[in-house]
Design goal:
With about 550 residues, the protein is of the alpha/beta class. The chain contains 16 helices and 26 strands.
């Protein structure tokens, strides 16, 4: 059955408004009581709202408009537009009320309105998360892959599933592109209500540190919470590593209002072990030592696939994955443990993992070439190091196979990780090509320079050849041109993304398509090589170090 939706959001938002078709009505007097807000209007009991929205362009008739303070502007500046689109009331703080001025609709005022937005959103949609089996997965790396694996395991048991994550939101088989790893609370609870309406039983969702820190998942009742690992990322948003870890902990701490009923923690790193030690009865997963779930024997890898056996409470299972890499063994074992915690027989869940391919995660691109070409989302130092180690393992000992890595770093994000990424690439690759990722508002050359500094700081004897090619399409073509039989080419950083953001404009660019085109040109021969350039044009190979 197709998912019904209300009128679409204007094209510039690139999102859909997913709402239940049979919305509940709640009086503003009830909203006032739930939130502790104040209002000078006396007729609140007569006004019934049927939804809540904090994006003015997405407001539907009957909504309560949540006008919250933001990083760039206060949402109250858009209140008149929201009212023109049908908002029946505005929920804001004192500063917002002053900005709003006189309106024809009630203005509800509360200090720190965001602190109650999640619970309010859930209540307005009938607390749908209480009627769903919701699995939340957090951590630095592995959230997306683990989410896909868990969804497959739950679906194998006959449950109707939904997926919310970085790549897509999927409900009843329909895919909706994701703008945020975890949507804002009003959209999230509206989606949950639609899922209930559509007969969904279980939801698997990625839970980002931003979502936890900003209250996007407030009001959600998690059946299972899972932790993958922690490494450097998002330190442009979090004050430090401890602050980053504290945000992740919100999904697990018993005193947290969103604490999951059951917790599953991968303890392969120090942060997982530290988290598990602080919890009363966590289910632990380990590929390196002991845990509630742990490996039996060795991992068998062949042809980009791998198999392993694991033991857990009263169950042993065999798992096969279409995904290479030791970190995917951890993701796979975590998925089995999560499915079991969610009430699925591991003997049913485990075989389903063998069917999963994850877009942009160790995704092979094949156009008849005699070497391996991979696109991966690795955009953090630890992830770059890990994927390089995995692909190094793919190269047979004594075969003479070499590894080329194409990587950049995003602008307006954690600048501290850039030299670390450059160093990881230089140390692990035979050829490292430093290029542009999503420069956003920053100078692309300055971003590349930071990666180059890290790469060239690696001692010459320990690093491969380093090149800088600003144009991403040209960089990918150069790596393909360099490769010979038995080599590996890795294009890292953007994975599934279909655009490249430069100075506020998102240009069409998909690493998988660009890599495929370069491979096809190679197979056709040099006479067909009319390489298209990326949107920002081509910088010459202005840095070549062997």
């Amino acid at each position: 059955m197709p998912i019904p939706e209300r009128s679409p959001v204007p094209a510039q938002s690139n999102q859909h408004v997913l709402r239940p078709t049979q919305p509940r009505s709640t009086s503003l007097s009830t909203v006032l009581a739930m939130t502790g807000a104040g209002s000078s209007r006396a007729d609140l009991a007569q006004i019934q709202v049927t939804g809540i929205e904090q994006r003015s362009h997405a407001v539907q008739p009957g909504d309560l408009f949540a006008a919250l303070p933001g990083a760039q502007a206060h949402g109250a500046r858009f209140a008149r537009d929201a009212v023109a689109r049908g908002a029946l009331a505005v929920f804001t703080d004192a500063a917002g009320a002053e900005l709003v001025g006189e309106l024809d609709v009630p203005v509800l005022v509360r200090e720190q309105p965001r602190s109650v937005l999640g619970e309010l959103s859930g209540a307005l949609y009938g607390n749908p998360s209480e009627r769903l089996r919701i699995v939340g997965i957090t951590g630095t790396s592995g959230k997306t892959t683990t989410a896909y694996l868990v969804e497959a395991g739950l679906a194998a048991s006959g449950l109707s599933t939904a997926l919310i994550g970085t790549i897509e939101t999927r409900i009843g088989g329909r895919r909706v592109p994701s703008a945020l790893t975890t949507p804002e609370a009003p959209q999230l609870h509206a989606m949950f209500a639609l899922m209930v309406e559509q007969g969904v039983d279980a939801v698997v969702m990625e839970v980002s540190s931003h979502a936890l820190a900003l209250g996007r998942v407030d009001g959600v009742r998690f059946a299972v919470g899972a932790f993958t690992n922690l490494s450097q990322d998002h330190l442009d948003f979090h004050a430090d590593f401890e602050d980053y870890f504290a945000a992740k902990r919100r999904l697990f701490e018993p005193e947290s209002p969103i604490a999951a009923h059951t917790t599953v923690i991968c303890v392969d790193d120090e942060w997982g072990r530290r988290l598990a030690a602080d919890l009363a009865n966590p289910i632990t997963v380990s590929t390196t030592g002991s845990g509630t779930w742990q490996l039996i024997g060795e991992v068998s890898a062949h042809g980009g696939e791998q198999e392993f056996s694991a033991t857990g409470p009263e169950a042993n299972v065999d798992v096969r994955l279409r995904l290479p890499g030791r970190y995917n063994v951890a993701n796979g074992l975590l998925a089995v443990a999560v499915c079991t915690a969610a009430g699925v027989d591991p003997a049913v869940a485990a075989p389903a993992l063998a069917t999963v391919d994850v877009p942009g995660r160790m995704q092979r691109v094949e156009r008849g070439q005699d070497f391996l070409a991979i696109v991966d989302y690795a955009h953090k130092p630890a992830a770059v190091k890990s994927v390089i180690a995995t692909l190094r393992g793919h190269l047979a000992a004594g075969s003479g196979g070499r590894l080329a890595v194409v990587v950049g770093a995003g602008g307006d994000r954690d600048a501290g990780k850039r030299p670390l990424m450059g160093a990881a690439g230089a140390r692990g690759a035979d050829l490292l090509i430093i290029t542009d990722d999503n420069p956003r508002s920053e100078d692309p050359a300055a971003i590349r320079a930071a990666l180059c500094r890290g790469a060239l700081a690696v001692q010459e004897a320990e690093r491969g050849e380093v090149r800088e090619i600003g144009d991403r399409a040209a960089a990918i073509a150069a790596a393909v041109g360099w490769a010979r039989s038995g080599d590996v080419v890795l294009v890292a950083g953007k994975g599934h993304e279909a655009g490249q953001e430069i100075q506020g404009v998102k240009h069409p660019f998909d690493d998988r398509e660009v890599l495929a085109a370069a491979l096809e040109r190679r197979e056709r021969g040099p006479q067909h090589d009319n390489t298209e350039q990326s949107p920002q044009g081509t910088d010459a190979e202005d840095l070549t170090v062997s």
